[in-house]
Every structure is written in C-alpha cells, then in structure tokens.
Amino acid sequence: MTVQTASLKGLDLLAEIERLKRERNAVILAHYYQKPEIQDLADFVGDSLDLSRKAAATDANVIAFCGVRFMAETAKILSPDKTVVLPDMDAGCSLEDSCPPDQFAAFRAAHPDHIALTYINCSAAVKALSDIIVTSSSAGIILDQIPKDQKIIFGPDRHLGGYLARKMGREMLLWPGICIVHQAFSETELLKLKAEHPDAPVAAHPECPPHIIDHADHIGSTKSILDFALSSPAQMILVATEPHIIHQMEKAAPNKIFIGVPGGDGNCNCNMCPYMALNTLEKLYVALRDLQPRIELSAEVMERARVPLERMLEMAGRTVGQGDVGKPVLPIIDHPEEIDPAISGD
Description:
Layout: H1 13-24, E1 26-31, H2 36-41, E2 44-46, H3 48-56, E3 62-66, H4 69-78, E4 83-85, H5 94-97, H6 101-110, E5 114-119, H7 124-128, E6 132-134, H8 139-143, E7 151-155, H9 158-168, E8 173-174, H10 180-183, H11 187-196, E9 202-204, H12 210-213, E10 218-219, H13 222-231, E11 236-240, H14 246-252, E12 257-260, H15 281-290, H16 299-318
Parallel strand pairs: 1-2, 1-3, 3-4, 5-6, 5-7, 7-8, 9-10, 9-11, 11-12
Helix pairs in contact: 1-15, 3-4
C-alpha cells in the first residue's frame, strides 16, 4: 500500500513530524540508504538489526522504521508490544522477493540434511523457516562455530553466500537471490575510477558480485564500510554500496572525498535502491499521524522467527566460539539491545 500524500501541501513537515513523534511517544529509525533529509531527522541512523536493537531499548510506544519491509518486521519481532509503522508498505527488497516462503520451505524439504543459515534480508516467514539468521558482519563468526561436516543452505543472497564460501572454505548450497543494487555495480566504471584515483581504496559490501569484490580493499557491512571510510588515512574512498551512506561519511569527515561506484554504463541511477527511495517525509508524517501502514505479524510467525534471530545473537554475541545450533529454550536473549552492534550490521 502506497500512501497518498497530495493533500499535504503547505504543511511544515519537519515540525509536524516532531510534534507527532512527541504525541505518539515514537522513535524514528533510518537506514543508511535513506535520503539525507530522513537520516537527519531520525533518532537513530544505522544498519537494520542495530536499529531494531536500539528501538527495543527505548520506552517508545511506536517505532517508525524508515527502511524496507523486512527491517520493520525484524523490529516488530524484537519489540512485539510496540506499534511498528513503515512509511510505504511497498518498500520491499529484491532479496526478500527472490525467496518466497513456500519455495524456501520446499527447498528445505528437498535437502533435509542441511541446516538453513539465512541472511537477515528476508521476510519474517522465511526467518521462521530458518535455523540461524546472520548479518553480513556476524556470518563469519557463526560459520566458524558450525561443524565442518554440517551441510548448509545459505540464502537468499548468493553473492554474500559465495563470498563467505570462498573466504572460509565452506561449501554451501546457495539460494539464487541477489540485491539488484549491488548487482548493478559496473566493473568497467570501477576500473575507470581506480585508474583516475589510484590511491583511493575501494570499500565494498559483500552483496556485490565477485567482479566487484575482487577489486575491493575493504569488504564489510554498511557500518563496517562507514568505519573504514572514516578511519582510513586515505583522503578519497571509492564506495561500492548504496550511495546514500555517503551522507553519513561526509557529515563525519567533511574534508574527505567519497565517490560512489556507478552502476550500468555510469549514466543511470541503478546504484540507488528504488525500494528505499519510496519513503518520503510526507509518508513518514502520514504514518505517524494514522499509525498506518502498520506491521502485523501473527504470534506464531513472530515466535518462530525469533528463535533463529536469538541463535544468531547468542552465537555472535555472548558466546562466540561456543554457539549451539541445537534447539534453544526461549527466551535466550532477554535484552537484545545489549548485543554488540559490531556484529549486527547488514
């Protein structure tokens, strides 16, 4: 459902959003891939799981998640008693779309000797069908704890799964999903940039295909890329992830130059996420005003999806190297907000 905002002309949206936030006792979350004007008014800007973790730690009654649908669902799973709204319910994700729950269930049934290690960029229903959820920053820590002879399904991102398989020497059965943004990055355009700026390191997200990853000096989650860009002595960084993260880089290091790697032939906007772009200030205002569109998940799906999320938090948080992939007794994590955000990045 896309919210109609034609009647809002003339409103002081920033003031109205601030007023509604106070009245609703709301917290506003913005992913790094959101437009700068949304990032700048948010209470927290960050990776999807870290945002959900921070929201869970607040006393807010309402979470307004400026991101995409699976992120808002994760916030609801970690804060089941809070109202979670998404400014535009059509803000989906190509990775989520690539992995319908019924097809994933059939795939799992066809490979009963495999456990499902599933990237957080998936629907709540697919999380509920999984054994362990991972983020791009926690996946390696978790893989290290799984016995070498245990067969693994990794989905829905085949590029992230392939990168982990190569890096860690683990053979995995990969679901064939991709992120349309990271898939679009052009090796030709990247090589042109590298030739023009030979001293500029490349920071890339592991959702990128191998022909981009192979040229990267740093590979990591959005938060990891941000940290690298700010800590690197280089005065120019080439960034191979959705370019709206550059807003945070420029705010924190205004004397550095950050260049987004182009997509396609270098003349398109295909390195920008079309789903993230659906969220606007107008839609955020309406979501806070009407408390719609609202994330609604059944108690059964939330409980089942929480299990593999808790496995991840336990394995990558409190007991690194001692994780148990057997069935945990709920609840494992009483305070998900206490988990180190360094392992919760997309």
